[in-house]
Amino acid sequence: MSTVTAQETPPGADLEHQAEFDAKVAADQRIEPRDWMPEAYRRTLVRQVSQHAHSEIIGMQPEGDWIASAPSLRRKAILLAKVQDEAGHGLYLYAAAETLGVDRADLTERLIEGRQKYSSIFNYPSLTFADVGVIGWLVDGAAICNQVPLCRSSFGPYSRAMVRICKEESFHQRQGYELLMRMMEGTEGQRRMVQDAVDRWWWPSLMMFGPPDAESPNTRQSMAWRIKRDTNDDLRQKFVDMSVPQAEKLGVTLPDPELAWNGERGHYDFGEPDWVEFKQVVSGAGPKNAERVARRRAAHEKGAWVREAATAYARKHQSAEEATV
Ligand SMILES: [Fe+2]
Ligand SMILES: [Fe+2]
Question: Measuring CA to CA, which residue among 83, 86, 167 is closest to residue 132?
Fold first, then answer.
């Protein structure tokens, strides 16, 4: 770890501050916004937290598409609550990013101009209501694997936001699994819908953990800074180990012929995701990239009057307060 930190220390940096920062991180204490931090640490966090925030907000779209046609009042209420939770996650995370000195309006601009990325998973279409269940089970399940270790991330506002987010993600995962259980108890057609959704979402879910460790250049530094606590491949393995027994209980087949228990390793072996597809989707050429960003842009433009009204209201009250001083 010391070599990595040394490489990141720019010449002439405040060595005393750097030593204090390193000691805090090594002791698993939290770095707070007012603390000194290396510029590269701040930049890495801005990138990670804002991309995470964008993912929560864009992630409202695939399921949001199904709110109007949910098959019952109960399903509609659950889905509404879940999609609203995702909006809340985005807001906590934009707020955490703002403590690093960036502006939320600017981050939104970067998203709608395609200058910042978000999770590749949300660029796939949700074709049937079974997708709502599979997104909850697999996509929120993968999010939990990714996010639980982030509750111990070294940056205070990020780690605290993650605690609350993880509690809500666990509800998301359960509602998805419960929906699939009910569908599997239904008709043959419903069971086929579930299997079809599993076939389409399994591989993209594995890609949510990012590229293999050997091709993830930022992982080593992020782990040294304790922003990230586990490698992409370790998290992917954890997700597979968790999902296989759940799939068996549900009665669905995971679409991977290489999936098999390896007694020696004490883990499931599994096949390689299509990394060419992953790169295409991340770089904007996925089935739904253009539509997701266009809808986010339209919503942002449609909401301009709310931001203007809120600013005018704040200004009015500020001048009233100043007048009374
Ligand atoms: Fe979320
Ligand atoms: Fe979620």
Answer: 83
